[in-house]
């Protein structure tokens, strides 16, 4: 069975107090038998507390980023080994904000994916095109290259541990959602690339998420697509009501 994942990326939002009360409220609302991994992804400062607070619940915790080395003279970075030791399950890598604002390269993302896997963290590897690339009909080729670069040097067993997220940049935080058909087309292409790099069996089992202005109103249609196994949510994951509205779409 392919795992369904509903992940909420808070980005740089919430104070410690807001993070605590959000998790406590969400915990109270998410059924223990929900048929999905529901993942909260707070800023790094609140990850340790989130892990403790979610221990007796259906919720899992992710980090928004990690470094490619476990330790050393890397001021300001977050160790994947330390995240794993805390009990973190997931780490978002290659988010378009990391690529665009912080100039992360494909090589760095590839090194981070390897470091995450070495530490038994599940990478949520984000790929996605700009509006110009979509309009020039270059998006499939571009996403294929992003995937191959991020997975370079990994074997089929490594790739089987990775979760994928298709996040068209033009749909992130803009209110513009890709149509369910457009999202499905690219997620099917991603599955095809995974099959080429591994095997049909590994590709069939891969969790592929869509992200970009997902909300309760469009989650059901997105989640009903054959090749979409979950969603990565930004803005609508910041309020308990809007996030639980999306989680309810799994039922
Ligand atoms: C994201 O940041 O990964 C994202 C999908 O954001 P939003 O849902 O706000 O578009």
Automatic annotation (TrEMBL):
Give the GO cellular component terms, alphabetically: cytosol
Could you give the subunit structure recorded for this chain? Homodimer.
**InterPro entries according to UniProt:** Aldolase_TIM (IPR013785), TIM_sf (IPR035990), TrioseP_Isoase_bac/euk (IPR022896), Triosephosphate_isomerase (IPR000652), Triosephosphate_isomerase_AS (IPR020861)
Compartment(s)? Cytoplasm
Family designation? Belongs to the triosephosphate isomerase family.
Its pathway, per UniProt, is: Carbohydrate biosynthesis; gluconeogenesis; Carbohydrate degradation; glycolysis; D-glyceraldehyde 3-phosphate from glycerone phosphate: step 1/1
List the Gene3D superfamilies. Answer: Aldolase class I (3.20.20.70)
Q: Which organism is it from?
A: Aerococcus sanguinicola
What does this protein do, in the record's words? Involved in the gluconeogenesis. Catalyzes stereospecifically the conversion of dihydroxyacetone phosphate (DHAP) to D-glyceraldehyde-3-phosphate (G3P).
Instruction: Give the protein's recorded name.
Output: Triosephosphate isomerase
- Which top EC class is given? isomerase
Please name one Pfam family that this protein belongs to: TIM
Q: Can you state which reaction this protein catalyses?
A: D-glyceraldehyde 3-phosphate = dihydroxyacetone phosphate
Give the EC number(s) listed in the UniProt record. Answer: 5.3.1.1
Example GO molecular function: triose-phosphate isomerase activity
GO BP annotation list: gluconeogenesis; glyceraldehyde-3-phosphate biosynthetic process; glycerol catabolic process; glycolytic process
UniProt binding sites for substrate: 9-11, 173, 213, 234-235
Q: Which CDD domains match?
A: TIM
What keywords appear on the UniProt entry?
Cytoplasm, Gluconeogenesis, Glycolysis, Isomerase
